[in-house]
Amino acid sequence: MTLLNFHALRNLQSVEMAPSSRINVISGANGSGKTSLLEGVHILGMGRSFRTRQLKNAIQTNEPYMTLYGRLSGEPEVALGVRRLRAQRELELRLKGEKNARLAELVEAMPLQLINPDAFRLLEGSPAGRREFLDWGVFHVEHDFLVTWKRSRRALKHRNALLRRGRIQPQEMAVWEQELATWGEQMDILRRAWFSDFLPVFEETLKVLLPLPGLSLHYARGWDKERTLASVLHDSRQTDQQMGFTQQGPQRADLRIRINKQPAVEVLSRGQQKLVVSALKLAQGRFLERTAQRHCIYLIDDLPAELDEHNRHQFCGLLEDMQCQAFITSVEPSALRNTWRPETSVKMFHVKHGEQGLSYLEPTS
Ligand SMILES: Nc1ncnc2c1ncn2[C@@H]1O[C@H](COP(=O)(O)OP(=O)(O)OP(=O)(O)O)[C@@H](O)[C@H]1O
Ligand SMILES: [Mg+2]
Q1: 1-111+295-365 has CATH 3.40.50.300 classification
Q2: What is the Å distance from ligand 1's center to 12 Cα?
Q3: Poorest-confidence range of 201-205, 254-258, 270-274?
Q4: How far is it, in rounded angstroms, from Cα 333 to Cα 219?
Q5: Taking the model in full, what pTM does it have?
């Protein structure tokens, strides 16, 4: 990003920021608006917040709407805009000056990775988070993925609806099962190919942060390894009907992280889990740079609170090795002031409390 301009986002009434193309450190007291600033970038690139499902909660109290504007670096630069009215559910998206841009276009234009305390629960949380991580990777390097994902999701919805309808209509069922089998197998092919290329990058990244011999990452496709999805779906109709949903398929894919064959989350300390998650997230950016020559934007909330000094140093070194842009928040700027190499472009910002609890942003040196 070369420019950010937010209006009426939480306690940030109006902030303009010309960030460094590389490292941006945002400091400020508790409650000053640091996380809100990252949230703004996240909404701009993903059309949703990482803090709330109800985007209207992010609109400043007593304001009718919020506007987020940003310019993405590149030749030429790409303008992005998001507006959310309190009275209207839909987001208004703008891309390159065009109204009614589609969300997928925004997401494609601006690959984002978020590292915050919730992200550190990736290992212990539900498979949905790991699947999202996996699909993010595939989506950004494989153009056919979105269509594949949409068609498979549509087929799954229809099959689930039929399962709940009571008496199954075998012909109608066969149509959607075939559709799901076709697109589900295709999704597996794309995910598997991505995974086998991603794995060495992850291993290499992890080695820098935390040498953990015995740690392994696996991709599980969501149904029996030995059988086709078509036959799995066909044979599980009855039990699926009892459950009321499709029990196996690409919607159940997962990344399994084990250490000496045990689930990593049951063995690793909290800090070790954070490092594994950091390695996963940094590896996404490294992989994207290598395969698609694209740079990911990192949003990193309260890094000093999450990692100790040595690990922070290793982590920052990996960030610097990439050509990515990062927005890193910290209550205290000092923890992140002298970590960087002289050649890295670093800008420091400070979020200050203003009147009525509203905050503004100040560049500092
Ligand atoms: N819709 C809203 N309108 C106005 N202010 C809001 C709104 N939602 C939250 N706030 C306030 O915005 C402030 C910014 O919160 P934020 O989480 O960004 O702070 P922070 O700098 O990340 O703090 P911490 O260091 O504690 O993580 C808080 O004081 C919060 O009460
Ligand atoms: Mg915060």
Answers
A1: yes
A2: 9
A3: 270-274
A4: 39
A5: 0.95
